[in-house]
Design goal:
By secondary structure, the chain is an alpha+beta fold. The protein is built from 13 helices and 50 strands. The strands form 12 sheets. The chain has an 8-stranded parallel sheet. Strands 44, 45, 46, 47, 48, 49 and 50 form a 7-stranded mixed sheet that branches. A hairpin with an 8-residue loop joins strand 17 and strand 18. The radius of gyration is 32 Å and the shape is globular.
């Protein structure tokens, strides 16, 4: 035995002489010896017999302890990088310092290490543990552990979702010992490099132990498994378990059981049952009668019970559980006999402070409180399973959870081909259910995300069938995304949403004029299985650079630093906050459209957002109205969001949002109501108000009872807009009980008086006559339109109405490439075209008939009247409407087509009217001069 190890061993003896010990557990949290094993020499050189000279604090990771390597260009990541030579991309290259790399595609750890690392601690085993069974609990290792006690190897475990538990009875006699643990975070089993259980895209591929670490003593006869199966219809709980241990074999044993209320008062009987021991492990099952009506668990009344079990003269155990019933009717999810709707978001293991999931109940309660404030009741864990603390918090708060067995396979990481991933999924899902299966919040389970390969349907069909046969406490689907196989109890499918991967500008939101009467009924599969829409939303917002200072932990927003420098280099650094808020308003509008479409879809079972908070990986997907810390960004509140995402949401089916004076607005009013009970004797009402808050029209829909469900028609409303020869915005608001929702509408004059004028020449091309007219001092409005601008001058920018979908870096530059408009509503050019500073539905026509001009190619001095916000990766200064001087003349350039099909485009007519009126006024005074060659070079 080496001298250093002898000294460490003697230190352990000293600790054993002075430290008081708890009765049944010994916490191992605190200071541990540590050594990195980058060359894999530790086992061969018997590091478990040596004193490890460095120290770290556990629970924790190497990164939280400042251990690992600095980030370099050669850092190997777990997670796909679309362009391995990204540092040569002209969008990134100007901001790359090869001596201090800033990675642009996800949050960057302060330290990175992939490989083996060793952890060591001295322990003292009390004398009264001499006749006990002893176990080592390691919660949330990442992800392979090997354990030695003194110089003896105990074994190796590999799990991402549940605790590594080692039986140590034969290794730990009373007295001093050394426990040495080797953690290896290399990918030993291919689960898919982008799986959020292991990927650097989100939580980071950390090395360490981040949950509870302790030794536990148990009697020689103990419970090795307890699974509770509540049945509210019989007011009983079936208790199935396993007794293990080396004593008492061949003799009957008494087990007592008593239920109690965990978060409510209940007096329940103690009951006893006899089990015959037949070997070292004995399975048993018996039924505990509640003796009274069971209190149910759901989002409205999350009643949590506890079951206390004890073996006579042996082990004791307490497990949480809840009574709930899940079924389906007409594709609708029914919970406790009540039609229900899943309003969910994803948790993709996004924890910037630590780089690993929160392990305490309070942190999860804060997260769940936030999603509930935004009207949600459900969370899906994308390709990973949360720790025990998340289930405990969700139990208490009534949140429905979907856990997954840690994999996101794809075309290279395939399922059903006999690879190790197949067995891993089967085994680890067993462990997940064994560990967390009693929690009532654990309501849904899937293998993981978006499977790949030729044989995955058969593999997943068997997976679902096995679980349906083994455990009826939750509902099962093959995978999130696909396939829609008949074995599924519910599908999670991407079709029911307004923007699909690859749809670009051909989606509902970008290709169809604004309405609120679409739903996704035609996107349902031919079967009758319940459908939850997969990852709806994915709408981006411009980065919040104020957020950079928020990253005080192990992950840093170096990507944001790059984007900020790019914005400054393009002369727009002072617009960062305006870009955030304006694009955020558009993002919120897109989410409202997506969610309302889902709620209008009769008998759809729910939706899963991607996401309520930002996803900082896969190219930087800023898809949240909240940042990665679950905090608001300043452009929509929880109260505003929950108007269209809640238990009860009034809905209006309008075949358009744009009207002309004298036209009748007709709307079918309905409601999606999934509250605690039907609404009785309520009178829905509606109002039309102008932007000053004055009532234009109002009415009621009659007193009525509203059952649970959606697609519930409340009545029809109509209103004919008065002839006022005034462009205006009005707001339709519908209220049902204490819930209200609203929709912005616009009304324009039937004809626009100033479209034709002798003072301004309106041209679609700059021909010789127009150029001469302009140089001679004339005023010209130049209307471009989609497909007219040279690629290098901005024509390469894919302009659409919606925000960017996911992000351009990870969608192979799918359109749209823009984040809406930014303007000054008080600008004289817009006085007859009512607008906010950001995109709203009246801009759909303009954005759908336009190119933008890259003003960086003309002059950085140009301040456009209407700016289009570019992707944060490219940060081009994009003008939609701007003005310049050319010679003695004044030129207003509109990227919007204001020439064609105006009879069908009231928004375009009105925008043209407003611009023409401005150009005729004294306010039209362009200050930046361009040459004829510069402006002529804009158009193809």
């Amino acid at each position: 035995m080496k001298l250093s190890y002898i000294i460490f061993y003697l230190l352990a003896i000293c600790i054993s002489c002075s430290s008081p010990q708890p009765e049944s557990t010994i916490s191992l949290q605190g200071n541990w010896g540590f050594r990195i094993d980058s060359l894999d020499r530790g086992e061969q050189e018997s590091w478990f017999t040596q004193s490890l000279e460095e120290t770290v604090e556990l629970p924790g990771s190497m990164a939280t302890n400042g251990k690992g390597n600095d980030i370099t260009l050669n850092t190997e990541w777990v997670g796909g990088v679309r362009d391995p030579n990204w540092y040569n991309d002209p969008n990134y290259a100007p901001y790359i310092d090869l001596d201090s790399i800033r990675f642009p595609f996800w949050l960057q750890p302060v330290k990175k290490y992939t490989g083996a690392a060793w952890y060591q601690k001295a322990v003292d085993i009390p004398e009264d543990w001499g006749d006990k069974e002893i176990f080592l609990h390691l919660e949330r290792c990442h992800w392979e552990s090997s354990v030695w006690v003194d110089d003896q190897k105990v074994g190796t475990q590999n799990s991402l979702s549940t605790a590594h538990i080692y039986p140590l009875t034969q290794y730990l006699s009373p007295g001093a010992h050394i426990i040495t643990i080797r953690i290896d975070n290399r990918v030993k089993i291919d689960l898919g490099e982008n799986s959020h259980s292991i990927s650097d895209h989100t939580q980071s591929n950390w090395n360490g132990i981040v949950g509870d670490i302790y030794l536990e003593s148990k009697p020689k006869v103990y419970f090795s498994d307890i699974q509770l199966y509540p049945d509210a219809s019989t007011q009983s709980v079936t208790i199935r378990g396993k007794i293990s241990g080396s004593s008492g074999q061949g003799t009957p044993m008494n087990i007592s059981a008593q239920a109690s209320g965990k978060n409510f008062q209940a007096s329940l009987p103690e009951q006893s049952f006899e089990v015959n021991r037949e070997g070292s492990e004995t399975d048993f099952a018996f039924t505990y009668d509640l003796g009274q009506e069971a209190k149910l668990w759901d989002e409205f009344e999350p009643n949590v019970y506890q079951m206390s079990l004890s073996i006579e003269n042996g082990d004791t155990l307490t497990e949480d559980f809840g009574f709930r019933d899940i079924s389906f009717e007409n594709r609708q999810l029914v919970i406790n006999g009540r039609p229900s709707y899943l309003r969910g978001t994803l948790e993709c293991a996004i924890f910037p402070e630590t780089g690993y999931p929160a392990m305490d109940v309070e942190a999860w309660k804060k997260i769940f409180s936030t999603i509930q404030a935004y009207g949600l009741n459900h969370m899906r864990f994308h390709s990973w399973c949360p720790p025990e603390a998340a289930f405990e918090a969700a139990d208490e708060m009534g949140v429905y959870l979907q856990a997954e067995a840690a994999s996101w396979a794809n075309q290279s990481t395939t399922l059903g081909d006999g690879k190790p991933v197949d067995q891993f999924i089967k085994e680890k899902s067993e462990h997940i259910v064994q560990e967390y299966g009693n929690h009532p919040s654990f309501m849904m389970m899937a293998y993981g995300n978006e499977p790949g390969g030729d044989n995955y349907p058969e593999f997943l069909a068997e997976y679902v069938n096995d679980w349906k046969a083994k455990d009826n406490r939750r509902i099962y689907t093959s995978a999130s995304g696909w396939p829609a196989i008949t074995e599924n109890e519910f599908h999670v499918l991407p079709e029911p949403r307004i923007q699909a991967w690859g749809a670009e500008l051909n989606s509902i939101i970008n290709a169809q004029p604004p309405t609120t009467d679409y739903d996704f009924s035609d996107k349902m599969p031919d079967d009758t299985i319940a459908v939850v829409s997969h990852e709806i939303g994915q709408w981006c917002v411009y980065p919040d650079f104020k957020e950079i200072e928020r990253y005080t932990g192990v992950l840093k927003a170096r990507n944001f630093e790059i984007f900020r420098e790019s914005l400054q280099a393009h002369g727009m650094g002072d617009l960062a906050e305006d870009f955030l808020i304006a694009s955020g308003k558009l993002q919120a509008l897109c989410y409202k459209a997506d969610i309302e479409g889902a709620l209008r879809t009769k008998n759809q079972a729910g939706f899963q957002l991607l996401d309520l908070h930002d996803f900082p990986g896969q190219g930087t997907a800023l898809v949240g109205v909240l940042n990665p810390f679950w905090e608001e960004k300043g452009y929509i509140t929880a109260e505003e969001y929950s108007r269209f995402s809640n238990t009860t949401v009034p809905l209006a089916r309008l075949d358009k949002r744009i009207f002309v004076e004298g036209e009748k607005m007709e709307a079918a009013i309905e409601v999606a109501h999934f509250g605690k009970a039907a609404l009785l004797n309520v009178t829905p009402n509606w109002t039309l108000k102008d932007t000053e808050g004055s009532t234009v029209a109002e009415g009621q829909l009659g007193q009525q009872n509203i059952a649970l469900g959606n697609g519930i028609r409340l009545g029809d409303i109509s209103h004919t807009f008065a002839q006022k020869n005034e462009a205006r915005k009005v707001i339709l608001e519908v209220s049902v009980d204490n819930f209200s929702n609203h929709w912005d509408l616009w009304v324009y004059p039937q004809t626009s008086a100033n479209i034709s004028t002798n003072a301004v020449r309106h041209a679609s091309v700059l021909d010789t006559n127009t150029i001469n007219y302009l140089q001679g001092g004339g005023k010209v409005l130049w209307s471009l339109g989609k497909g007219k601008v040279k690629a290098a001058m901005g024509g390469e920018v894919g302009v659409g109405f919606s925000s960017i979908f996911w992000n351009t870096a990870w969608t192979e530059n799918q359109k749209p490439h823009t984040l809406g408009i930014l303007c000054n509503p008080e600008h004289a050019a817009l006085q007859q075209f009512p607008t906010e500073f950001h995109s709203n539905w009246q801009w759909w026509d303009a954005m759908s008939h336009s190119d933008v001009v890259n003003l960086n190619e003309l002059s950085n001095d140009i301040q456009p009247i209407v700016r289009v916000i570019d992707d944060w990766v490219t940060n081009r200064s994009l003008g939609l409407i701007f003005e310049v001087r050319v010679g003695e003349g004044k030129l207003l350039i509109s990227g919007v087509d204001l020439k064609n099909q105006l009879s069908e485009r009231p928004e375009a007519r009105q925008l043209l009217t407003s611009l023409m009126s401005y150009m005729e006024s004294e306010d039209f005074k362009p200050s930046v001069s361009l040459s004829v060659e510069q402006v002529s070079g804009i158009m193809q």
